[in-house]
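Schema walk-through. Below, the input block comes first and the output block second. Nothing else is stored per chain. Lengths vary across the set, and this one has 94 residues.
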Amino acid sequence: MPFVAIVAFLANADRASPLDFQAEGKVWIMSWEGKNHGMPLLVIKEYGESGTTKKLESHDLLLKPDQISEGDDFYKEKGSKNYIINKVEVQCIK
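--- output ---
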């Protein structure tokens, strides 16, 4: 049983709250009906050689389909409720 608890904790450890989420890159995936209870899923592929991806899945996102799409430039600072999408600042978190 302790092993299951440790695995469950580690699987969720990289999930940041929408307010703590920080990323700068291109929108890699934008899914409005994610696989996790229908929560919107946003995946950003960060700029740079590593090209790491950052995932945010939350019901607290205020984004609408006409505001963001795959391939858009994306920037968000930790602690901010606003995202900058294609050089336009948009409030995206409740």
